[in-house]
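Async update (no meeting this week)

Hi team, since we skipped the sync, here's where things stand on the single-chain job. The sequence we agreed to prioritize is pasted below, unchanged from the tracker. I ran it this morning and attached the output directly underneath so nobody has to dig for it. Comments welcome in thread, and please keep replies under the output.
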Amino acid sequence: MKQKIINALTKDIGLKILAIIFSFFLWLVVVNIDDPKQTRTFTSVVTVTNADVLTQAGKLYEIKDGVNTVSFRVTAKRSIIEKLSPSDFSAIADMNNLENAERIPVTIAAKSYANYVTISSRQNYLYVILKDLTTERFVISAQTSGTLEPELAVEEVTCSPTVITVTGPQEEVEKIASVVATANITGVSSNFTENVIPKFYDKDGETVDTSNFNLSVSTVSVSVAFVNTKAVDIVVKTSGTLSPELTLGSIKTDPSSVMIIGEASALNDVSNITIPDTVINLSNLTGSFTTSVDISSYLPDGVQLSEGTSSKVAIYVTMAGETASTVDVPAENIELKNVPRGLAAALDSKTVTVNVFGSEQALASLKADSVKGYIDCTALGEGEGQNAVLQFENVDGVTIQNTSVTVSVIADPNATEEDSATESDETKED
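Output:
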């Protein structure tokens, strides 16, 4: 039996070996027919490496036209290529290989099936634009936005840090005019701190794109402190007795009330701001007039004027039947008298705003061109911005209040030698 098996295996051995070889080749043909090679195009995003070599050289790069992808052809058997996707390949642009300051060769490599795929040998490039790099420091302005709760005022707004460092393309960094960190106070009634993203603005108030900037901080801590507020009237006290020929009409202030801030306990004790009787002495009045006072010294302890509130208050004292107004008198209507010889004097403004008093009808018909005034320059010497009193002659039915102005006195370029000699002699006699 054994011998029969051996004889069967060795009989016609050459034909049997030939059959095996033929079968093998036949298998190869079948395999290649069923799993042929194919070529497909893939597109991958390019990764830039060693970009710091540009930073060290004071440069930045920008991808030209925003195209940061490359396309390439890959050949592999169908069974392999059908499994591949763009994520199976890497596309690397090494900044060390920058050519002509405009393009970087891109190296394509397979991350999967590396031994079974063939990548086309065509060279791909990433095109870039180089820009000058600069670093600037900007002070951060802390602000608030939103609606403030009643009877509250913002006492202080601070931020940390107060300075931000910006690194980026020079032409873009130079656009920055201000950096603002804004906290929203809507619905907030107690002190708070929040982190906000600072915003960058150009000189026109437009937002500057920061996507190409390297910022020292991405957020800023803004702290807001509140204080209690209260609106109070301004009261004017007077002293003395008005002349029998005059009848007092009214005493008013502008503004009539102010906003004060402080602790609630201190505000509760304040009903008004009183201007003392030493300011207005009725015995000295010859008619309607106005004056200005600083009320900051009249504020009670523990309170102060809210931010943005002026401490200057105008007081209008008018006689019965009169009202107050203002008129802008042109400089050419003002005469400068007794100017020292050899000198020339001129007002420092083209118009002077003066207070006028009278009936509403008289003030309505008053024309600025009809108001004439003069300045006595006897006591003025050579120099700019000297204080002087501008005096007026009253118009029928209208009282014009004298006021203080500034006058500049210079050497008269039209003065003759005789004028100068006379002035010199007068000086010696003095």
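Quick observations from my side:
The longest helix spans residues 13-34.
The chain has eight helices and 29 strands.
Reply here if anything looks off.
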